[in-house]
Design a protein that fits this description.
424 residues; alpha+beta; Cytochrome p450; five-stranded mixed sheet; 12% strand
Length: 424
């Protein structure tokens, strides 16, 4: 059967992700009634919607059968794909980062920075990350017991960490945050470049092109600088990196910079803001966590599952294949729905409950297999340090108004979490 139109529309609607409840209900219906089926919302090529945890893992494990790069890697309508292909010489990608690559390119490019993000190499950064966390929490303590935790802390702290690792000057951090929000929030009037609700493909694409052009101009200057004066930072690794004996092409270098500069903080910001929001709504869990800081690691995993900042990636089949009892022809397009996998009743007991002691917590928020998030260990380190420091100082916490999520169907999380609190 075809997925009903109202459900198909909900799971692609940026406003439904901002609402949260609507999209959760749509995916719960799909897991129950049509866990692997075809959606064909108006204006889009048909695509399979993969809602079960087990099916997502099986697809993520088989990178030769399910490609990232042959078709758009994020959900794109027919008109936008046509425009991108005509602009990019036939490629469906405005940006070519690790996310849009398949092997052998994916392996070769990932290797350039993979070592920098391994746990043993990140450990030496912990003292510095703790200093950065201290600075933000001192600022929070000085704000008189009220702040917007998303805007005042959660957005800025991981941004500062990744920019310092990249070697981007602190003065340029506001610019990087704005560009990131414009890139991921292209449908959100509070975040996109137009400052208005934009629905037509040409305007959305034009806004995104401008954002990518701004990133490119910025990082071209960084490339020149790091080739002339290499340092011990991520930008130097990209600027001087070589694949098959040649320097990175402009498109690939820009893709690398952009994914590191955006995904390197935005998903961590979303999870941090969402984790605090959940604690404010679940005072029993907060009390448990304050009484037993050894629960911080499992609280972190539950925050990551709860928020699932990356809502989907697309794959396409390179051969006829069978998944979950369905035969999928070669060339078909599939949407891997991570929030649905992370609410799968077959894997998670009481999945709509925020449970800081949930174990095991085999969420798929970082992906799985070869494309698993490169920065997952850094994200966990940053969040652990922040929560260790914050929980030792936080005395009380409550919401101070209605939190809001961004309107986006690709990367989405809280854009405002107003709180009242006392700290010492």
């Amino acid at each position: 059967m075809m997925i009903p139109n109202d459900i198909a529309h909900t799971i692609i609607d940026p406003k439904a992700y901002a609402d949260g409840k609507r999209v959760d209900e749509a995916f719960a219906w799909l897991r129950r009634e049509a866990p692997l089926d075809i959606a064909e919302p108006e204006g889009f090529d048909p695509f399979w919607v993969v809602t079960r945890h087990a099916d997502i893992l099986e697809i993520e494990r088989q990178n030769d059968l399910f490609h990232n790069g042959d078709r758009p890697t994020t959900l794109t309508n027919i008109e936008s794909e046509k425009m991108v292909r005509s602009m990019m010489g036939g490629s469906p990608h405005l940006i070519r980062s690790l996310v849009q690559m398949d092997n052998p390119d994916h392996f070769a490019y990932r290797r350039l920075t993979q070592g920098l993000f391994l746990p043993q190499n990140l450990r030496r950064l912990e003292v510095r990350i703790r200093q950065i966390a201290h600075g933000f929490l001192d600022r929070m303590a000085a704000m008189g017991g009220r702040c917007d935790f998303a805007k005042d802390v959660a957005f800025l702290y991981p941004l500062h960490v990744i920019m310092e690792l990249m070697g981007v000057p602190e003065a340029d951090e506001p610019r990087m945050l704005k560009l990131t929000q414009e890139l991921f929030g292209s449908a959100d009037p509070d975040l996109n470049r137009s400052g208005a609700t934009v629905t037509d493909s040409a305007t959305v694409l034009s806004n995104l092109q401008e954002v990518v052009a701004d990133f490119t101009a910025y990082f071209n200057a960084i490339t020149e600088d790091r080739r002339a004066h290499p340092r011990e930072d991520v930008c130097s690794a990209i600027a001087n990196g070589r694949v098959d004996g040649r320097p990175l092409g402009v498109l690939e270098a820009m893709g690398y910079y952009i994914i590191t500069a955006t995904a390197g903080h935005d998903t961590t910001s979303n999870t941090t803001a969402g984790g605090l929001w959940a604690l404010a709504e679940n005072p029993g869990e907060l009390a448990k966590l304050k009484a037993n800081p050894a629960l911080i690691p499992s609280f972190l995993e539950e925050s990551i599952r709860w928020v699932t900042p990356v809502k989907h990636f697309m794959r396409s089949t390179t051969a006829d294949v069978e998944i979950g009892g369905r035969k999928i022809p070669k060339g078909d397009w599939l949407m891997l729905s991570y929030p649905s996998g992370n609410r799968d009743e077959a894997v998670f007991d009481d999945p709509f409950r925020f449970d800081i002691e949930r174990t095991p917590n085999k969420h798929v928020a970082f992906g799985h297999g070869a494309h698993i998030c490169l920065g997952q260990h850094l994200a966990r380190l940053e969040m652990r340090v922040l929560w260790e420091e914050l929980l030792s100082r936080l005395e009380s916490l409550e919401l101070d108004g209605e939190p809001k999520r961004s309107e986006a169907n690709f990367v989405c999380g809280p854009k405002s979490v107003p709180i009242r609190y006392t700290m010492h």
